[in-house]
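Run log // design_07
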């Protein structure tokens, strides 16, 4: 009887589900998977490709069946991705190389939209099918290529501190669109500081039809003559247009000065001014300064005023002649101007 009882107990023990070892193994697999997916909070947020990559890496440590049972992925899905890992798509590898090459060529200044245009132009040039921008975006995300230069905060120069003069009304009223060169122009001043602590000031006059920087001035001191130089250069190159010209600025003291207003009258240019402390009224100029400070790098990385001034000059020529803009149909301001005239 005792022997029969012992046999029954052994049969019951063998037929009972062995939950403890399997639960422990599942926990270990989930723990290792979570450690591999450091940037993802939970397994549910992981993509099938990411889960398949983890399984592919953990196959030497666990049985494949246990990995599939523990993770939210089917065997057929894993086998699909395994085949992709072992036999990568040659066209996609080529596209990745092109993306990385152009991203580095433009010094990480181009995001998905502008880089996609350059990549498609390259594929048209070599006679191949152009890739979709969503595919380019996905591959850039997978390779960790992201333009972060515009995340840096920069200080703003306040040109309103100075002698008061005559203010003008806001004639532009944020109507920044134009199809005629010189019809609408904007002007502003910004400040940069070199590594030695000395400051450099830049003033630009921008045309709103072509987005071209018509004239500019770089100086070590924000005096009146510095502000008048770009306007004097503009008057020398200004043709007879036959329509009303408008130059919009903020309420800086230079633009309230009688010398500035006198030059505007000589060129038959209507004066327009932003409202007080409203930078959006002159956003067309502010965006140029934002791009400049992001793309030349930190101003304090330049040793002195001469190096910083040279970098600004080179960037302005790059902006006008080689930097494409999506608002201009992926053309440079110079190309857009030539097509506008034609």
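design_07 sequence
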């Amino acid at each position: 009887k005792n022997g029969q009882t012992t046999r029954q107990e052994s049969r019951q023990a063998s037929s009972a589900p062995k939950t403890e070892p399997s639960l422990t193994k599942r926990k270990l697999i989930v723990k290792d998977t979570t450690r591999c997916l450091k940037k993802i909070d939970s397994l549910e947020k992981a993509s099938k490709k990411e889960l398949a990559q983890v399984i592919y890496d953990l196959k030497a440590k666990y049985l494949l069946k246990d990995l599939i049972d523990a993770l939210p992925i089917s065997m057929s899905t894993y086998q699909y991705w395994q085949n992709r890992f072992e036999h990568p798509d040659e066209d996609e590898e080529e596209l990745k190389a092109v993306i990385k090459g152009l991203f580095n060529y433009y010094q990480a200044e181009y995001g998905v939209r502008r880089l996609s245009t350059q990549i498609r132009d390259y594929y048209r040039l070599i006679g191949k099918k152009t890739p979709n921008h969503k595919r380019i975006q996905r591959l850039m995300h997978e390779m960790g290529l992201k333009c972060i230069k515009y995340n840096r905060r920069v200080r703003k120069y306040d040109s309103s501190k100075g002698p008061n003069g005559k203010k003008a009304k806001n004639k532009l009223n944020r109507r920044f669109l134009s199809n005629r060169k010189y019809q609408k122009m904007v002007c502003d001043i910004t400040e940069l500081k070199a590594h030695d602590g000395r400051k450099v000031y830049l003033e630009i006059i921008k045309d709103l039809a072509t987005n071209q920087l018509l004239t500019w001035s770089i100086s070590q001191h924000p005096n009146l003559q510095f502000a008048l130089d770009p306007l004097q250069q503009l008057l020398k190159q200004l043709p007879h247009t036959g329509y009303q010209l408008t130059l919009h600025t903020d309420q800086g003291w230079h633009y309230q000065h009688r010398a500035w207003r006198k030059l505007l009258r000589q060129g038959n240019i209507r004066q327009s001014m932003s409202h007080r402390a409203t930078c959006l009224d002159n956003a067309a100029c502010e965006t140029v300064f934002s791009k400049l400070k992001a793309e030349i790098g930190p101003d304090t990385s330049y040793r002195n005023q001469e190096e910083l001034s040279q970098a600004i000059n080179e960037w302005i020529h790059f902006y006008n002649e080689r930097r494409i803009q999506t608002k201009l149909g992926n053309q440079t301001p110079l190309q857009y101007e030539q097509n506008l005239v034609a």
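The radius of gyration is 32 Å.
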